Amino acid sequence: MSTKMSRCFRSFTTVLQRGMNDFAVLNTGRKMPLLGLGTWKSEPGKVKQAVIWALEAGYHHIDCAAIYGNEAEIGEALQETLGPGKSLRREDVFITSKLWNNRHHPEDVEPALLKTLKDLKLEYLDLYLIHWPYAFQQGDVSFPRKEDGTLLYDNIDYKVTWAAMEKLVEKGLVRSIGLSNFNSHQIDDILSVASIKPTVLQVESHPYLAQVELLAHCRERGLVMTAYSPLGSPDRAWKCPDEPILLQEPVIASIAEKYKKSPAQIVLRWQTQRGVVTIPKSVTQSRIKENIQLFDFTLEADEMKGITALNKGWRYIVPMIEVDGKRVPRDAGHPHYPFNDPY
Predict the structure, then answer these.
(1) Which residues of the sequence carry a binding annotation for substrate (predicted)?
(2) Catalytic machinery residues
(3) Which one of 17, 277, 293, 340 has the largest count of C-beta atoms within 10 Å of its C-beta?
(4) Using an 8 Å Cβ cutoff, are 214 and 203 in contact?
(5) What global pTM score does this model have?
(6) What is the C-alpha radius of gyration for the chain, rounded to an integer number of angstroms?
(7) Residues of each annotated binding site for substrate
(8) What's 88's DSSP letter?
(9) Which are the contacts of 202, defined by CB distance < 8 A and separation ≥ 6?
(10) d(CA 47, CA 330)
(11) Phi, psi torsion values for 309, nearest 5 degrees
(12) How does pLDDT run across 287-301, given as a tens digit for each residue?
């Protein structure tokens, strides 16, 4: 990896056979569609229409989170499309949301979920994730800060939060629970105390961050992996101007030409063919339609290996701050920060 890339901070669940199996099977026995619509950075005013377009195009999986600030608008889309007399039944669509960092205390977990359910206009979620293993200061402020602008953290143990998540399943408010942005040690830490095992780990993954070791770790423990930012994240605020562009990689372009597909479709197919659930974000109708057209071709073994070989350990989603003129990971000092471990 180049020095320039380092300055930006760098850091298989059962593979399903192609056919009609465009889903992963969770350890609860429930099916989770391999392709979903991501809604991170899908701004209000656009996300409602994006969700409607996705459901019309054949998506059966919508990924949400309270911190995205758009669940109420997504709820409007779901209300218009799901239920008696509508185009889809509620049980036809797999809906995920996430518990934010200021709601890790047990007494806050159920109220946070109930707010999400109210916004989404749903009676239950298919999957609820702990968004990050580390917590912010308890309260109503999503990003609590000191006077100097630095974040206020809380050291509550995520295992305590997990016990509260289990109660949501027992009450029928969620069908499954899982983790997001946890590392392999933290997954095992949860498993050591879990009465209800996590079903899913959602993490950043794309050919530059193939997550081969973490994927194997999840498979061995019965977790399905979900990949966010599967095409990279070029619109994030802390982007470095000189970083490589994933979709311009010659290996990917060559395979795309062979199959008469776009580079994005090749990357998404690579993930789903590994059995990784993938949630590309878009508010553009043509891209939403294109992204789901993945299941009419199969990459060959050498093509899969060639894409995996692009791995650079390159992590895009690491919020950065400026300290003494240098850009450093914002949350790296927290004892539960997940990215200090290899995977």
Answers:
(1) 131
(2) 68
(3) 277
(4) yes
(5) 0.91
(6) 19
(7) 131
(8) B
(9) 63, 96, 129, 178, 179, 180, 181, 225, 226, 227, 228
(10) 28
(11) -65, -10
(12) 999 999 999 999 999
